């Protein structure tokens, strides 16, 4: 078997066998297959597609490329949540504590920011002292004690995905259904939880732009999860505009805290409750997602969810005083206000542009090895449906580098679309695909 033959076969649109897929994943992970051949295969896959069977085989080979975590010493059903990547998406820091407050064990492995999207691990590191890399025993004992721990993915989990994702990022082969499904599910299946709640983002600020594409992605991920004996559910959710008002690392953790105090934006509160409801149901604490929703609402209003976030911060070495004192978060030295040029209704706030503006302000990485500015980001003052007058503040961009801030502010400004009439509200959740 040669890599040349495998590339040619896929270029001609033929289905690859289990042996060919395993040969590629193993060889690329070990380094015997060079980037240029892997890139050629990824591009052939991008144009010719993978069948369901090939997607399952690719997921399985990637899952087996590294360690498979054993979480059996954590009591009960272990639930994880995963988003396919969004802008302003801090729901893990809200839904996780709410589900944990309802008695579900949340053993969450999260990622860092990718492209214009943010990552929970970067966000958590804005809390002074917070550790996101815990040894397996500490992770397990924290979940047993506090019901909740959130750590970064170790290099030993699905290393094939780590290498392939970095290659896809620079070869324009990220936004392919089979490649996303195998990337997400290989990591999730290797990370040892029993149930997965997947948030499949859809819209201009997501890798899947149409509802049909996002549903197809959700369906295949749910099928892969079910075939592996895991309870899996996917919510297809709107990512045309940023979630909530804050985008950036410390900025998003502060908004998550406000949401758990009951004073967060309506969209982020509702989406977090809905995600938590499915986590609580999947964890076996209630008999239906509706009962999970009621339980999550009670955990929000009683403050039990906020207590779980405090326990998470304390358990991972962070300073829990941040919950009541936002001055303890890293503070940006500079800010630029973005103002409206004309009167009118805001009819769109392009999520992708706000994500790019946030990254430019310093909140994300522009090259793989960039350090990030935990204080940087964008706070929206206006959103879809608001009426603005010329000169009103639309947003503030925070950071520490004056030149970058002005560039970021120009990108953020272009994200706002105004019109003479109020736009009809778009649904927050387009579909729920349940695999159990
Ligand atoms: N998130 C992932 O983990 N992988 C992808 O391919 C896309 C989003």
Taking pLDDT < 50 over at least 5 consecutive residues as the criterion, the unreliable ranges are none
Number of domains: 3
Q: Tell me the series of helices and strands, N- to C-terminal.
A: HHHHEHEHHEHHEHEEHHHHEEHEEEHEE
Strand order of the largest sheet: 3-2-1-4-5-13
Helix content: 40-55%
How many beta strands in the DSSP annotation?
Answer: 13
- Structural class determined from secondary elements: alpha/beta
CATH class descriptor name of the largest domain: Alpha Beta
Shape: globular
Q: What's the alpha carbon Rg, rounded to whole Å?
A: 21 Å
How much β-strand is present in the residues? 15-25%
- Report how far apart the termini are: 39 Å
Chemical compounds bound to the protein: uracil
For the sheet with most strands, the description reads: 6 strands, mixed
SS field, number of helical segments: 16
């Amino acid at each position: 078997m040669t890599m040349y033959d495998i590339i040619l076969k896929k270029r001609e649109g033929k289905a690859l066998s289990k042996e060919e897929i395993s040969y590629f994943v193993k060889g690329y992970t070990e380094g015997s297959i060079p980037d240029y051949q892997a890139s050629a295969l990824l591009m052939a896959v991008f144009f010719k597609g993978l069948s369901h069977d090939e997607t399952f085989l690719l997921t399985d080979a990637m899952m087996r490329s590294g360690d498979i975590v054993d979480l059996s010493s954590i009591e009960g059903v272990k639930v994880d949540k995963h988003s396919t990547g969004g802008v302003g998406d801090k729901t893990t820091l809200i839904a996780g504590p709410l589900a944990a407050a309802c008695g579900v064990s949340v053993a969450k492995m999260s990622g860092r920011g990718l492209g214009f999207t943010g990552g929970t691990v970067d966000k958590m590191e804005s809390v002074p002292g917070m550790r996101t890399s815990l040894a397996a025993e500490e992770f397990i004992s924290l979940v047993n004690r506090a019901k909740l721990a959130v750590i970064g993915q170790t290099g030993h989990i699905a290393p094939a995905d780590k290498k392939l994702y970095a290659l896809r990022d620079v070869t324009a082969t990220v936004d392919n259904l089979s490649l996303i499904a195998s990337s997400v599910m290989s990591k999730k299946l290797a990370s040892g939880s029993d149930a997965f709640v997947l948030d499949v983002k859809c819209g201009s600020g997501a890798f899947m732009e149409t509802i049909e594409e996002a549903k197809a992605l959700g369906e295949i991920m749910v099928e892969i999860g079910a075939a592996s004996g895991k309870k899996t559910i996917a919510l297809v959710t709107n990512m045309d505009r940023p979630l909530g008002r804050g985008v950036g690392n410390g900025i998003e953790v502060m908004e998550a805290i406000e949401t758990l105090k009951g004073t967060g934006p309506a969209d982020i509160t509702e989406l977090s409750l809905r995600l938590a409801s499915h986590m609580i149901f999947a964890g076996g604490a209630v008999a239906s997602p509706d009962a999970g929703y009621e339980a999550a609402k009670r955990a929000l209003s009683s403050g039990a969810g906020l207590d779980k976030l405090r326990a998470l911060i304390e358990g991972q070495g962070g300073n829990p005083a941040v919950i009541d004192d936002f001055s303890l978060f890293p503070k940006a030295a500079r800010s630029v206000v973005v103002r409206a040029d004309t009167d009118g209704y805001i009819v769109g706030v392009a999520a992708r542009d706000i994500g790019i503006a946030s990254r430019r302000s310093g909140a994300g990485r522009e090259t793989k090895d960039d350090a990030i500015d935990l204080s940087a980001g964008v706070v929206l003052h206006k959103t879809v449906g608001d009426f603005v007058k010329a000169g009103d503040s639309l947003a503030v961009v925070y950071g520490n580098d004056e030149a970058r801030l002005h560039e970021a502010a120009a990108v953020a400004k272009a994200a706002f679309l105004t019109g003479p009439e109020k736009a009809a509200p778009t649904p927050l959740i387009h579909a729920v695909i349940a695999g159990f």
